[in-house]
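An instance follows:
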Amino acid sequence: PIGTLIHPDDIGPFQENIAESARTMKPCRDTFRYRHPSKGEIWVESYAMPSRESDGSTLWHGYVQDITHRKHADAELFATQQRLTAIMQALPVGVAFSRDTSCQAIEGNPALSALFGADPDDNLSASATDPNATGRRVRYFSGGRELSDAELPLQRSVIEQTPIPAQELAVLLPDGRRWLAEVSGAPIRDQQDRVIGGLAVVTDITERKQAEQALIDADRRKNEFLAILAHELRNPLTPIRNAVEVLAGENALPEQALSAAQLIDRQSRSLERLVNDLLDVARITHGRIQFRERPLPLQQVIEDSLQGIAPVLKKHRHRLELRLAEAPVVVLADPVRLAQVFTNLLSNAIKFTPDGGCISVSLTQVGREAEVRVRDDGVGIRPEDLPGLFDIFSRGGAKYPSSHDPDGLGVGLAIARKLVEQHGGVLHGHSDGPGRGSEFIVTLPIQAEAPVPTPRAEHKANAVTRHQPRRILVVDDNPDVADSFKILLETKGHQVCALNSGNEALQALQEFRPEVVFLDIAMPGMDGHQVAAAIRAAGKDPQPLLVALTGYGQDDDRAATMEAGFDRHLLKPPDLQQIEALLADLA
């Protein structure tokens, strides 16, 4: 019986169709799974024409055809369509396709609709005759030239019947939005290899192009910065070399020798400022600046900054207008770092203001914020330079007045802004244009509590006139560093031994028995940390004072020296007052 050969899930519909055919005497067409005796389960399609027999029964005449291959092909085609639909839905790039060679109607996936700000059912064809089609109102540009619809990659792929490589286009949408796209095209063919439509892949590359441009700009600024750095390093080196020649000569008069020594001091301090600026940039970039904050009046910080630049103001005959709030304006800040902010702003004002110009500094309280304005009537800033004014490696295209030396690396404003931000404030700049001066405004949150008044700290070494001579060991793998430091300490009456390796230092400990050891860290072979650890492990009594004298000054470096057994950590080049204060403490 046929009921036993048809798949159980298909027998019900089959019997219903047969019953309906017997009732209406119309042909019966059906598709079902059939248990073939040799092939197993197959799909079949049946067609039967009913006829009424003389005895009242119904007889069907027809055929049954094996359609298993067709059903499998249909299932595979459906699965492929489902996969393609899922891919189109999930793709993060836009896909457009036309079903006709005239490209009058173009559909797109959700990503494409989002790029064009269109609804899913919108026609995205630029070739459409319907003026309301979204795509018809989109404009495309390449190299600044607007393209016709026939020049677009999808249409070209259909016209030329070949794939079109990706090209960059600027896309202008009807609402005025503009973005950059990378578009490629390919023709769609039928089984006879005839072109029946086209497809395009559209990728938004706006962010990528902006990032590429940012990298190009950063590389350009880096190269400019390196050129400036080389120039700024050579500037002080030239007079230092000249002064050394004067001191080394046989005919130098006493006043000439003194002048040469003062010149070397000034220029070496200039070099030190350059190095400190570079280090500050590195610390800020990696977030390694530590603050020692306390409540303090802003008036005091500003006055301290003005004291530091007073000689330069006088040299260039600048007029200073100072307007500070009478009542204390208290902020929570690191006094050294905040003074650095105002020194940088004032130094910039001096650099970019011709001799005899005016610089004004004002401090007011606006609600719960302190506002400091530093204004000058100097060269001003071009509008196009304002956005990148605070970028690292950017000098904003500024030109110095002819009477000024263009010193500095151009990182002062970047450092100042970061320091202000880390104090919870904001720094921004403004200019009405070239020749109309500049203004920089610092805004800081105000603290409710007033600071405890403390006397101005005097450097301890200032009170030290003479101190006991000490036995001092200096260890540095650079002979010039070790020998010059030895000479400096000997001029102060100390007994000094200078060596160039860690092993030599450990051997000298037995005979020389130093009270103080100035030790370089980065030495070949046995480094400073290992030498310090060996000295401490030897357990000699009394133990010498161990001072790390190094070019490494990050927080991690200081922690490592303390862990190795050092008592102090000084940065090269050390200030003589620092050394004298340290030796005075030893007493």
Summary: The first strand starts at residue 28 and ends at 36. Residues 368 and 446 are 6 Å apart (CA to CA). The chain has a mean pLDDT of 86. The radius of gyration is 42 Å.
